């Protein structure tokens, strides 16, 4: 398997385990992690991978969202990336892969991290996991095109418009996660499910996934969310909201 800076990969029983590995930043998505995650998902299509499990290193966080220090310009984008036009996006690649994906959510799952988990086919949460979609606070639209198919329109509006925190049990009640595991069992439970999926007919599994997505996902809504965020990002209000949030979270 390829060596990466910000993710760890393991392969066994036709299951690829991808671990986001920026523990010091609660596995926040910076440019390198976002690209490497996208590359690992994209490359899996050309390998003997029948299921993918995504988790975060450590016990505190699956992914705390976008790296606020990088996004606010306080820290420069790390070197070693390909040209902008050749960079991959983890969430985009997740939405395009035909391979079934499972998020093993082991702690904070906020913002872009929550969007990443929602983009997976199945979510298994640790009992200590918490979810939050603070996009409205930051002046952005996050997961409005994808969360409603899991929890319904009214609950999606409540969570997205308020930015409230949601614990694992509430996430389970509303269908955001498929099941809740003890923290010590989380990864084993996710890998067990992934191994079962990987043992079934690859063609039947991938086509089942495709048809379910056709029945429940709106490409138009997803495209509109991306387009709206391009307009919102960098506007005076959004920039000020993001700077304020960055100071609150990082003290910088």
Give a description of the structure.
This protein has one domain (7-250): 2-enoyl-CoA Hydratase, Chain A, domain 1. It is built from twelve helices and ten strands. It has helices at 31-44, 68-71, 90-96, 112-119, 135-138, 148-151, 153-162, 168-174, 186-199, 202-216, 219-232, 236-250, and strands at 7-12, 15-20, 51-56, 61-63, 101-105, 108-110, 122-126, 130-132, 166-167, 179-181. Helix 1 links the parallel strand 2 (15-20) and strand 3. It is globular, with a radius of gyration of 17 Å.
What distinguishing features does this structure have?
globular; 10 strands; 2-enoyl-CoA Hydratase, Chain A, domain 1; six-stranded mixed β-sheet; 252 residues; alpha/beta; single chain
Class based on secondary structure composition and strand pairing: alpha/beta
User: Judging by the overall fold, what is the CATH architecture?
Assistant: Alpha-Beta Complex
Question: What level of helicity do the residues show?
Answer: 40-55%
H-E order: EEHEEHHEEHEEHHHEHEHHHH
Oligomer: single chain
In the CATH hierarchy, what is the class? Alpha Beta
Q: Characterize the overall form.
A: globular
Question: Which stretches of 5+ consecutive residues score pLDDT under 50?
Answer: none
